[in-house]
Amino acid sequence: MPKLRVAGAHVKEMLKDEQIYCTSYAYEHGIDRPDVVNWKWSN
User: Fold this and answer.
1) pLDDT at residue 23 in the model
2) What single string gives the DSSP state of each residue in 3-19?
3) Which of 6, 21, 32, 38 is the most buried (most CB within 10 A)?
4) What is the pLDDT of residue 43?
5) Using CA atoms, how far apart are residues 38 and 4, in angstroms rounded to an integer?
6) How many angstroms separate the CA atoms of 17 and 24, rounded?
7) CA atoms 12, 18, 20, 23: torsion sign
């Protein structure tokens, strides 16, 4: 389904960008981002 392929590519790119941002933040600050460390499942 071509429609899903486009949506899937967008999500994949977004998650890859988030990974790069988290890695850069950790490298620059020496710790993980606070919102990542303190994240909890919502009920």
Assistant:
1) 97
2) HHHHHHHHHHHHHHHHH
3) 32
4) 77
5) 32
6) 11
7) negative
Q: Is the separation of the CB atoms in 21 and 13 below 8 Å?
A: no
Give the torsion sign (CA, 5, 23, 25, 43): positive
Kindly report the number of other CB atoms within 10 A of residue 39's CB atom: 10
Q: Structure tokens of 40?
A: 């909890």
CA distance 39 to 37: 6
pLDDT in tens, 1-43: 666 777 788 889 999 999 999 999 999 999 999 999 999 998 7
Closest-CA residue to 26 (of 36, 39, 16, 41): 36
